[in-house]
Amino acid sequence: EVQLVESGGGLVQAGGSLRLSCAASGFTFDDYVIGWFRQAPGKEREGVSCILVSDGSTYYVDSVKGRFTISRDNAKNTVYLQMNSLKPEDTAVYYCAASSWAMGSMMGYEYDYWGQGTQVTVSS
What we know:
This protein is mainly beta. It is built from no helices and 11 strands.
């Protein structure tokens, strides 16, 4: 059974940091792209970042470049999203997702499996 379990969300003040984790199981981790997406109330889901697990290539949406860092631990089948200099507009439910074919894309329809999400709230 494929599982993606996010953790690490919470409430933080603007300028603060959080690290999200996505623990994967039930598929061959190295063969996939793992992406982070977010959805704020009343807004469409947005791709934030993704990583090609096989070679570590990373991609970011412009709004988080320089503030967020995605990484992976192949031994733990886990992907992390380090979020620094958080802003109120980063407030959203954050989801991790896995794709066998996205190849750096952050289009949600290209992702096969999704986690349940974790809430990130940034206060001003």
